[in-house]
Specification:
The complex is a heterodimer of chains A (430) and B (187). With 430 residues, chain A is of the alpha/beta class. Chain A has 14 helices and 19 strands. The longest helix of chain A is centred in the N-terminal third of the chain and has 17 residues. By secondary structure, chain B is of the alpha/beta class. Chain B has a single domain, classed as Aconitase, domain 4, CATH 3.20.19. Chain B contains six helices and seven strands, in the order βααβαβαββββαα. The chains are: A alpha/beta (430), B alpha/beta (187).
Chain lengths: 430, 187
């Protein structure tokens, strides 16, 4: 069996499972946020009763992150509903808005708080819940109804997926990031190329990546339609977790004779910077093909592009420069925001580099990654052409149906911010 | 799940994602408060770009600007319908607008699952590229037991794929009733 099959088998009480089977599995962590949490809570109460208790308060994580810094009264009411539920159920893992516990983007918050345990099952009411698979666990996104059923029973039915394996060999050049690798894959297989399947990432180039960069790979499994993305746990995983949690875990690994739907191999040393053109994540072009495209805006943030390493990469390019277009910086979490002040690039804090370059720096949250209420930081309202480190660029994703979004790595976005046109990071990296 | 589903067709293209089905700015409305709930019907499919809203001509809103229900009861889509976000608000919005079934060439996994588990819509699949032979406004009839789609406007009939494993959940009504029957929840 491969890693995904082994985790599902273990959590369904079986010795083995095969792709195509439907099984009920036990959930180790259920994560929800301010958009899907309130309706999931509503369904939980409707089905299990007003007095019902969640199956295990220690396994429910609630991280409001989507619509936080907005005057929209309905959005703020959603947070009130989460707060009341957390109090009523005495939930230890609620990260309330306006307190020192507030985290920001849930997928990165889960990692920082040590919830991503190898070998476990993590389900979230967000399609990018597949991010957590970077830690060698089974993680996938579901809707409100499935989340409500888990709240009451701790269980969910899953169809065991076939697994596609993606092997990255070679040494990653300094002008490439994980975003280039995953956009290349999605361009190859299409936005439905992995539908109903797991995507397992393997190869020395993957294990050379930090946990933050690995999360960028697994995060975008959903952009190929995948059920989950997964990377086997290694020493990098163990070190990351040791610094953040003492919760026990048992990693599992794919057998040497494990079966795969398909295997694709890439030599990263031969790859080049890419973008996803409007309006689909699989509409890939090399940066050189679209170089010179005029831009109105750059955006660095979100669960795929708002991690510390993303900002360090961007700061390396923006240092001593001045952005030519509106450039929005949104740290994924409050921890990332704090680290912008203490992390130095050539002796200057990352935050200072962004300030000196003329960027607009926002509060930790999902912000304009998915449009959101009208007053959302960085949201589009007209025909803006945007280059963004986010993960999805369907029509209207950043707000306006008339705007157009290019997806790219933080290096490419920063290089483009300086010139105001799409620019290959190799032209500004020294 | 009703055996016979009838309604007017509303046709969209390939890879209509959940942001087009219900744009993120509207996700703030309650799904249970009646006055807010109906907003999901008003804004269903409002994120689809105008030129492809209701094919083949386009520029046909799914729900009229001053209405909360759609006149179209059956959605005809291309491949990978419902890709993108996990928001269950998407099948909910279509149902709230009065849509009972979708017939597509394929679905994104989470949308399909949400449609079934919440009991909102029957997601039929077909191997025929219906978006090229059915037009918005055609009168349709689905027979879920036989697995056929009749187009009363053109007189043509098409085969639907069997619903497979999820038929049991659809018959139960939603995943809770299915789980009760399976003994996972006390009935």
């Amino acid at each position: 069996m491969n890693i995904t099959e082994k985790i599902i088998a273990r959590h369904s009480g079986r010795d083995r499972v095969v792709p195509g089977e439907n099984v009920w599995i036990d959930v180790d962590v259920l994560m929800t946020h301010d958009v899907c949490g309130p309706p999931a809570i509503g369904i939980f109460k409707r089905e299990f009763g007003e007095e019902a208790r969640v199956w295990d308060p220690d396994k429910l994580v609630i991280m409001p992150d989507h619509y936080i810094f907005t005057a929209d009264p309905h959005a703020n009411r959603n947070v009130d509903i989460l707060r009341a539920f957390a109090a009523e159920q005495d939930l230890p893992h609620y990260y309330d808005v306006g307190t020192s516990r507030y985290k920001g983007v849930c997928h990165i918050g889960l990692a920082e708080e040590g919830f991503n345990l190898p070998g476990s099952v993590l389900i979230g009411t967000d399609s990018h819940s597949c991010t957590s698979g970077a830690f060698g666990l089974f993680s996938t996104g579901v809707g409100n109804t499935d989340a409500a059923l888990i709240m009451g029973t701790g269980k969910i039915w899953v169809k065991v997926p076939e697994t596609m394996k993606f092997v990255f060999d070679g040494n990653l050049p300094p002008y490439l990031m994980a975003k280039d690798l995953i956009l290349t894959v999605i361009g190859d297989i299409g936005i439905d190329g992995a539908t109903y399947r797991a995507m397992e990432f393997d190869g020395q180039a993957v294990f050379d990546l930090s946990m933050e960069e690995r999360m960028t790979l697994t995060n975008m499994a959903i952009e190929a339609g995948g059920k989950n993305g997964v990377i086997a746990a290694d020493q990098t995983t163990a070190d990351y977790l040791a610094a953040r949690t003492d919760r026990p875990y048992t990693p599992v690994y794919s057998d040497p004779d494990a079966r795969y739907h398909s295997v694709r191999t890439y030599d990263v040393s031969k790859m080049e910077p890419v973008v996803a053109k409007p309006h689909r994540p699989d509409n890939r072009a090399s940066v050189s093909e679209v170089e010179g495209t005029k831009l109105d805006r750059a955006y660095i943030g979100s669960c795929t592009g708002g991690k510390l390493e993303d900002f360090v990469a961007a700061a390396g390019i923006l240092k001593d420069g001045r952005v030519a277009i509106d450039t929005f910086i949104v740290p994924a979490t409050t921890e990332v925001a704090r680290l912008l002040d203490t992390t130095l690039v050539e002796g200057v804090s990352v935050r200072q580099i962004f300030r000196d370059a003329g960027c607009k720096i926002g509060e930790s949250s999902c912000a304009a990654c998915l449009g959101g209420p009208i007053d959302t930081f960085g949201r589009t309202h007209a025909t803006e052409v945007v280059i963004s480190t986010t993960n999805r660029n369907f029509p209207g994703r950043m707000g306006s149906k008339q705007s157009a979004v290019y997806l790219a790595s933080p290096l490419t976005v920063a290089a483009s911010a300086l010139s105001g046109v799409i620019t290959d990071p190799r032209e500004v990296l020294v | 799940m009703k055996q016979i589903i009838t309604g007017k067709a509303y046709v969209v293209g390939d890879s209509v994602d959940t942001d087009q089905i219900i744009p993120a700015e509207h996700l703030v409305y309650s799904l249970t408060v009646p006055d807010e709930r109906r907003m999901y019907g008003r804004y269903a499919l409002s994120g689809v770009p105008g030129s492809v809203q209701g094919l083949p001509a386009g520029h046909v809103p799914f729900t009229a600007a001053d209405a909360f229900k759609s006149e179209f009861g059956i959605l005809i889509a291309g491949s990978n319908f419902g890709c993108g976000s996990s928001r269950e608000h998407a099948p909910f919005a279509l149902r709230q607008a009065g849509c009972q079934a979708v017939v597509a060439e394929s679905y994104a996994r989470i949308f399909y699952r949400n449609a079934v588990d919440g009991g909102f819509l029957v997601p039929f699949e077909t191997r025929v590229r219906l978006i090229e032979v059915i037009e918005t406004g055609h009168e349709l009839e689905i027979d879920s037991a036989v697995g056929t789609l009749k187009n009363h406007t053109t007189g043509k009939q098409y085969l639907l794929e069997p619903l497979g494993d999820v038929a049991e959940i659809l018959k139960a009504g939603d995943v809770f009733e299915y789980a009760r029957r399976a003994g996972l929840i006390e009935a």
